[in-house]
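Design request, tokens follow.
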């Protein structure tokens, strides 16, 4: 839990998030400032917010696999694995367009019915909240939501695909 992972943005809008028709689960450790903040959120919104301030890889995967959405509003993210785990589980990521998140999550385009998640651009709590609201509203339209799930689960993040791409780039580079 630190600013790099977007907890400053999240902290700013938690009351607005809790006003939405959703439940919120958080599992992580980090800065004491955020521990206190989110522990208070759990007390204030005990009917819809659960906070686990610990590291537990097994529980992390259970939560991620059982959730409908996974929130990852990172300031920067060199790679990131959780958005890929989420998509394989059918859990739709909500991410900021940065680093590996930009490379792996395609923003849902309602007109084309394409995309694998919900993406926001600027590192801004208001933009994050609008993106969360867009995801929650889309979740209510089950036929569209299941299409996003299928598209997300169909993504191939395997090394064999990456190796082919690397080989293509390598041979392009030595040909020039």
């Amino acid at each position: 839990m630190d600013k790099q992972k977007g907890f400053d943005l999240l902290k700013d809008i938690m009351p607005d998030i809790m006003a939405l028709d959703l439940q919120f689960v958080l599992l992580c450790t980090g800065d004491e400032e955020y521990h206190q903040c989110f522990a208070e959120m759990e007390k204030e919104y005990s009917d819809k917010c659960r906070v686990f301030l610990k590291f537990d890889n097994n529980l992390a995967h259970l939560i991620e696999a059982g959730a409908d959405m996974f929130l990852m509003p990172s300031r920067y993210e060199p790679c990131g694995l959780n958005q890929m785990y989420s998509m394989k589980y059918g859990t739709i990521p909500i991410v900021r367009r940065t680093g590996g998140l930009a490379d792996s999550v395609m923003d849902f385009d309602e007109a084309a019915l394409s995309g694998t998640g919900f993406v926001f651009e600027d590192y801004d709590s208001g933009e994050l909240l609008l993106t969360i609201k867009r995801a929650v509203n889309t979740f209510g339209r089950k036929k569209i939501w299941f299409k996003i799930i299928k598209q997300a689960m169909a993504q191939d993040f395997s090394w064999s695909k990456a190796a082919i791409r690397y080989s293509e780039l390598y041979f392009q580079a030595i040909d020039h």
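Comment from the thread starter after seeing the answer: thanks! The radius of gyration is 17 Å.
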